[in-house]
Amino acid sequence: MDLVQLEIFTAVVDHGSISAAAARIHRVPSNLTTRIKQLEEDLGVDLFIREKSRLRLSPAGWSFLDYARRILDLVQEARATVAGEAPQGAFPLGALESTAAVRIPGLLAAYNQQHPKVDLDLSTGPSGAMIEGVLSGRLVASFVDGPVLHPVLEGVPVFEEEMVVIAPRHHGPIQCASDVNGENIYAFRANCSYRHHFEKWFNADAAVPGKIFEMESYHGMLACVSAGAGLALMPRSMLQSMPGCTTVSIWPLAAEFRYLTTWLVWRRGAVSRNLSSFVRLLEDKGVTARDARATAQPPSPV
Questions:
Q1: Could you say which architecture CATH assigns to the domain 3-80?
Q2: So what's the pLDDT on residue 83?
């Protein structure tokens, strides 16, 4: 087993096929096929399930992928450290849509100015998808709704978000979920932590939402609520950043549901030079919530 084989293996996984990976890393497909077979013979397992022209990772392949990415990341970091170089190379970062829109644009700009050799690639999505990205190695780190109690992950709290229910402009007062029992709501997909939070708010009051309409953006939610079609939950900071925020009524949640904390999380023991520089920037900007970090619970499975 050598580094070239690991690089080829991860390239095939990332690009979905031998031919696409070959074009990306400028090698002939037959060379990639041979290298993959040599790696499988060395390990004594099939890393891929071969179905005609398709390749799917086998269970052993999924397990090996994590180690392969970690090895390659460590090699890259070791080279940079020995060479005394500043952070550089790929830095795939994830974030909640609201965090990306409101909280971190200035931080990303400052990071790019300090480390121009870093290729920062930002992906957005619900917490569930972003956590999966970190666990799979697709993302180095991500901003998610926390705390994330997982034995493989660690991180720091960074932003406190006030969550509010938005309703049509002339909606009656909303003091608790029973006030809106049976009303339709707009939310992200099922792996969104904010949607889970909204549903818990209903459950705690023995109330149930009506139909749940899945949306792809906060702007879409705001438009539907403004039109009188239902309710939505979102961070106040996100709401205030959008045109049309005055076309809806805004209702804070009860104290036990009102605030959520956004965390930056990464794989335990996998702090690269790019990531450590980013965390240091957060600390320098006074973003990380040191008190919350000190009281964080120990990891446990989610």
A1: Orthogonal Bundle (1.10)
A2: 58
Indicate whether 82 pLDDT > 90: no
- Note the pLDDT tens digit of each residue in 100-132: 999 999 999 999 999 998 889 999 999 999 999
Task: Tell me the pLDDT tens digit for each residue of 259-275.
Answer: 999 999 998 877 788 89
Rounded Cα–Cα distance for residues 121 and 95 (Å)? 11
Closest CA to 278 of 7, 95, 20, 150: 95
Place of tokens 């799979």: 136
221-261 pLDDT, tens per residue? Answer: 999 999 999 999 999 999 999 999 999 999 999 999 999 99
How far, in Å, CA of 208 to CA of 19, rounded?
A: 50
CB 168, CB 175: distance < 8 Å: no
> What residue spans define the domains of the chain?
3-80, 82-159+260-294, 161-259
What is the CATH architecture of 161-259? Answer: 3-Layer(aba) Sandwich (3.40)
Can you spell out the DSSP letters for 78-106?
HHHHHHTPPS-EEEEEEE-HHIIIIISHH
Phi (first) and psi of residue 69, to 5 degrees: -65, -40
